[in-house]
Protein: LacI family DNA-binding transcriptional regulator
Organism: Mesorhizobium humile
Amino acid sequence: MAHQGAQQRRPSIHDVASHAGVSAATVSKVLAGVTTVRPENAQRVFDAVERLGYRVDPLASDMRRAKRRIIGAIMPEFESEFFGQMVTELEGLAEQRGYTLVAASSRESEAREKEILARMHDWRVAGVVLAPVRNEHGPAAAFMKANGMTGVLIDRVLSDDAFDTVSADSAAASAEVARMLVGKGHSHILVIGLAEQAATVRARLEGFRAQALALNPSVRIDVITAEVSVEPLRASLRDYFGRGERPTAVYSLLLKGTLVALSEFRRRGWHCPNDISLVGFDDAEWMQVTWPAIAAVVQPVRRIASEAMNLLFRRVEGAAGPPTARLEPCQVLMRESVGSPGSGPHSGGGDRQQPPLS
Amino acid sequence: MAHQGAQQRRPSIHDVASHAGVSAATVSKVLAGVTTVRPENAQRVFDAVERLGYRVDPLASDMRRAKRRIIGAIMPEFESEFFGQMVTELEGLAEQRGYTLVAASSRESEAREKEILARMHDWRVAGVVLAPVRNEHGPAAAFMKANGMTGVLIDRVLSDDAFDTVSADSAAASAEVARMLVGKGHSHILVIGLAEQAATVRARLEGFRAQALALNPSVRIDVITAEVSVEPLRASLRDYFGRGERPTAVYSLLLKGTLVALSEFRRRGWHCPNDISLVGFDDAEWMQVTWPAIAAVVQPVRRIASEAMNLLFRRVEGAAGPPTARLEPCQVLMRESVGSPGSGPHSGGGDRQQPPLS
DNA sequence: CAACTGCGAAAAATCGATTTACCGTTTGGA
DNA sequence: TCCAAACGGTAAATCGATTTTTCGCAGTTG
C-alpha cells in the first residue's frame, strides 16, 4: 500500500462540469457523443476532462439501467488449461464489447454454482456464461430460468429448452477416436469416465461405441465410470486390471481420467503404446513433450467461447426465438501413445521411439 | 435465454419498506443489524424480505463508500495450474470477507496490465492483488502508487518500497535443488529461464549458483535465458546442444522452460534420467504420472494467497507502517527425472524403472 | 406548565452517473 | 406578423442503497 496518502478523491462528473462551466448533463452528453452540443462547450468539456484526468465510474453509470455492463462466467474450476483458456477468451470478448467479465469457480459443486448465480443476479449482470458442473438440468439453470436471467450454457451440455447451448461435438470426436483405434486393429477397448457429467460423457461414450461397433461388430468395449471424484475411478481401474483384464487400448473421456490411466500404467510398469494404447479427451500442453506423446481430442476453445458470446449478446440485445444448440467440431491429435496391438515388444526394453535429429 | 419473459423487476428496499409499513431507512437498519428498532417492526421487515425474496444490491450499497467491496486480481495468465489455483484461492478468501473478486489476465503484457489496473481504479476497488508480468518496478505498480491505490504484489517480486509483497522463497528452493544435484554428483549443470521476469528468475539463479559453488567450487554452471517468449529459448537450447554441450542436468527456472527442455530431450532421443537429469521450478499434476516423473519445486500457493489477502485487508482497513516483504517456503519434490550422472545405461534401452506392483 | 431528554422512525441528503422535462432563443414557414 | 419547430442547455428525477438530520411523541424535570 502506498502509505503516503495520495488518496485524493477522484473527480466526478460535477467537478468536470464546474471546471468547464457547464452542467453535468452536458458533460454526460459530450462524453456520450451527442452532437447537439456547441463545439466550444464540447471543447471545454474535453479540456476539463483532460486536466482533471476524469474517467467515468462504470458502476455509477450502470446504476440506472436494469442490466449492467457485466457478464458473469461460472466455470467448474480454473486449474485446467481448458477452463483457463476459456476464461481468457471470454474475458477478451466481453471487453471488446465494453463489458467487464466477472469469473467465478463453482469448484465442481452444484450448490456453490447456484449460490454464485444468485450473487450474479444480485449484481444485475446482463448475462451469464455458465459451464455447469453436471449438465443443463441442474439447479443453476433452473434458477436462471426462474429469475428470467439471460445466459448461455457451455461445455457439459447438449441442448436446453430455455437457453442457447454451445459445446464441443463430443460424439463426432469420439467416433473419430473409434475409427482410429478400431482401424489400428484394437478389438478390446476400455473406456473410462466420470458419470456425473452425464451430458457430455454419455455423448462421448455413445458416439464411440456406435462407431466402434459399426466398424467391427465383435469389438469388446468395457466401461468404467465413477460418480464424483477420480479416486473411486482409480480404485475401479486398479481392480479391473487386477482381475487380469487386458484391453489393448484405453479411451479416457476426460483429462483427469487420462492422468489416472497414465499413473496406473506406470504403477504396473506398462508402457505406451507397446503394452497399451491411450487416447484422452482434452489436450494439454505437456502431452506433446512426454514420452510418449499422448494422443488427445482437442476442443475448439476459441470457437466455443466466441460462439457463446455471440449468442449471449444477441439475447442481451433482446433477440427472441427458440434456443439454439451448437456443436463445434473437435480435432483429434494422433500421437505416439496409440499403436497397433501386439506390434511392439511387450513389456520390455527398447520401447522408445527415437525421432530423427533435425 | 428464458424467452418467456419472467423478467419481473427485482424488489428494491422501498418495496420492502412499503410492504412492511416502514421507511426504507428502517429496512436498511434492520438488515444492518442496528438494535434501535422496535422488535415488531424488525419482524415485519424480515417477513417482507422473506415474502418478496429481497436481496441487497451490492452495487447500490457500495455507491456511497469510497472503496467498494471488490478486490481486483491481475494475473499474467489463467492457463497454468499455478495461477489457476491462485485465482481459486483468492476468490474464496475474498468471498469469506464479503468481497467480490474480479480477476483479469494481463496476458504477459505490461501495457495491458496497466490498462486493467486503470479499469479497476475506475471500479473503485478496495484493493488489488497484482502478480506483475515482470517485477515490482513495472508501470502497473507505478500507476497504483501514483493513484494511491491499495494493493499487494505477489509471485514475481522480491520487495517494494510502497507495497507489501508475497512470493515463494525461490532462492532457498533453488539452493535446495543445487544441494540435490551437486549431492548426486552433477558437476556440469545447465540452468534455463526467461530473463524478463527479472525479480524471481535472478533470485532463483543466484540462489542456485551460490549453493552449488559452495558445495563444489569446480562445478560448471551454464545459463541460457531468453528475453520474452519461449521460442527464442528453445532455439538457444537447440543451438547449445547442437554445439555438443553435454551437461548432466538441467534446472529450469520456470514451467514453460521445463516443457521446452523435455521436448528438446525427446527431439534428440535423450531420456531422463539416464541421459540427462531434469528439475523444474513449478509443479504440475501431470509431472507425477509421466515416465519418468519430473522432479519439481512446488510453490505454496495457498500460503501465498492467504498471506497476500491478510496483508491486503490489513491495509484496506487502514493499517499504516512500512511495507513487508514475505517469502514463503517451497517444497522440492525429488522424482525419477533426477539421477546420478553416468549411472544409468546411456542412450539405450531398458531405461524404465519398474515400480513393484502393490 | 414550559422546557428538556430520549427514543424510534421518517425525511432528506448523498454517492456518480444518465435521462427526462422544460425553458428561453432563433429561425422558419404560413 | 405570428405560431411552431429546432436548438442548446439546465434543473430535476432516477437508480438503490446508506447515513445524517429532523421530527413527533412520551415521559421527566424545574
Notes: Chain A touches chain B through 84 residues (CB under 8 Å). The first helix of chain A runs from residue 13 to 20. Residues 12-14, 24-25, 27-29, 32, 56-65 of chain A lie near DNA strand C (CB under 10 Å from a C1'). Chain A has twelve helices and twelve strands.
